[in-house]
Fold:
Amino acid sequence: MKKISINLLTNVMLLLAGLIFLLFYNTPHILDWVARIIGVLFLLPSIAFLLVISLRKSQPSRTSDYMGILPALGGMCFGIVMLIRPALFNSVLVLLLGVLLSILGLFHIFFLMLSYKRVSAKGWYFVSPFLVLAAGIVVLFVETVSLDENMVVLITGISLLLFNFTSFQEYLGERKNRSVVADVEAVVETENPTDIEL
Structure:
């Protein structure tokens, strides 16, 4: 059974998030829905943990089980608040999305700089990461954009697709570089065989 790459899984999740944001960016109160989804993501694991602890009577409870009850209750309460009053979190979500885009853009810029030869990067590889970084800065510091939640969601959706495009470029560059290195090693090995015939 093959292991799933964390990098691949992250890229797929960000790609899906970007597509969903692009499809629904014009939905009224879109950030309320984002807050509700995050609320459900807090609520369900917390409830599941509390149910497992309360229904497990045959096995003795461990100290770690009791220590997990308080965070589970906190996560459940936080999830309920996000579901009931999602508008309270709109400004926080805008801030988080701006920070996320800035970090994603910087990550790819530094990654390309550090692995320029390994990825066989061209100058235009840096365009998408700089656009993602610029989008994050705009969301964080341009008030007319940050107050328009539909615009924030649209910019975030486009930026997440650009992030995936950059990841795909890096993957193709690394793959091409690896195949070239393998070809060179094969040629060197055939020209200089190590086996000596007796």
